[in-house]
Amino acid sequence: MNPLELAKRAAELTADKKSADIVILDLRELSSVTDYFVICSGRSDIQVRAICDHVLERLKAAGVVPLATEGVERGRWALLDFGDVVVHVFQEATRRLFDLERLWLEAPRWTYVPGSVIESARA
Fold this sequence. Notes:
The structure is a single chain. The protein has 123 residues and is an alpha+beta fold. It has a single domain (3-112), classed as Beta Polymerase, domain 2 (2-Layer Sandwich), CATH 3.30.460. The protein contains four helices and seven strands. The protein starts with a helix and ends with a strand.
């Protein structure tokens, strides 16, 4: 699957585990490191781990494995690096602290709403 399809699929998978505030940032014009960030929140370390485990398991079944993972066991800020797509799963307070959406303010973004198409929005 291409990077945008992977980002959308990762967003859908985070929603399966009731993540909140799911956003996809398009970094293709702003970063040489990755094409997309998928950012979402979990309410607890247990939920953050469950979201990550689900994304990893389902993408692995589709033949997509991460280059690296960080922070999954601690469950405050987990990073799943798939190369062209990096998934960030935060606890809400940690997400506010690092505020990646503000750091990448110029990036086009989509807000994922479960049960609907991903809508384009400019924050």
